[in-house]
Amino acid sequence: MKLIIGLGVILGLIAVLPAAEQVFAAGSEVGEYLDRKAAIWGLFYRLMIIAFTVGTVVSGLIVWLVLRFRESNPKAKPTSYEASGSW
Amino acid sequence: MSGHSTWPEWVYVGVVIALLCYVGAEAWNIERIVEHVPEDAEIIKVTGQQWLWTFEHEDGTKEIGELHVEKGKAYKFEITSKDVIHSFNIHDYVVLLDAVPGKINTVWFSPTEAGEFDIQCREYCGLIHYNMRGTLIVEDNGA
What we know:
Helix content of chain B: 10-25%
Order of helices and strands of chain B: HEEEEEEEEEE
Shape of chain A: elongated
CATH topology of the largest domain in chain B: Immunoglobulin-like
Strand content of chain B: 35-45%
Radius of gyration of chain B: 21 Å
Largest sheet of chain B: 5 strands, mixed
Structural class of chain B: alpha+beta
Structural class of chain A: mainly alpha
Number of strands of chain B: 10
Mean pLDDT of chain A: 81
Number of strands of chain A: 0
Low-confidence stretches of chain B: none
Order of helices and strands of chain A: HHH
CATH architecture of the largest domain in chain B: Sandwich
Largest sheet of chain A: none
CATH superfamily of the largest domain in chain B: Cupredoxins -  blue copper proteins
Number of domains of chain B: 2
Mean pLDDT of chain B: 93
Number of helices of chain A: 3
Number of helices of chain B: 1
Oligomer: heterodimer
Largest interface: A-B, 29 and 33 residues
């Protein structure tokens, strides 16, 4: 369990650190202004990539689950409850 | 507890947490950068009223329905309303902020290209809302 929590923390840090680096560098240039259009649309595209990737994985997993564990699948095996007939 | 292995589930949970952290940090970071107003930004007072926009520059110059700015300079809009809630939008520069009576909301931008761009009210504000438009004219004086 500790290993798993540690893994989660490391993954979280890997995701956060690049963003944290940019925070302290922001707005330091004189006379050079942020292109808010590029910044905002860039954020939108990055978040959309994540959203569609997650959506694809989750919906793919659901489709696989439904097909793999349908009752008519030749590979389907009864659960221990179903095999014994008692719950 | 069942006897099956749970590590794939924990990996899944870890990946979800990592993605949520990334999404939150990125959004927070970009919002922070976008809201950082340059110190030399020129202030333009924007007032919405049914159904037109008026603008007042720092030197007192007033404009109605048209706003003249210079390419490459930074401008800070101080937006308010005289009557109902409007929303000040320059679509091409991703400027969008509500104009609320009795309140001054601020947003800044810096035009990167010369030309004419639409200004539009984005909050339904009455019968002629659809035609509460203006024109942003960006002049290239530095060329």
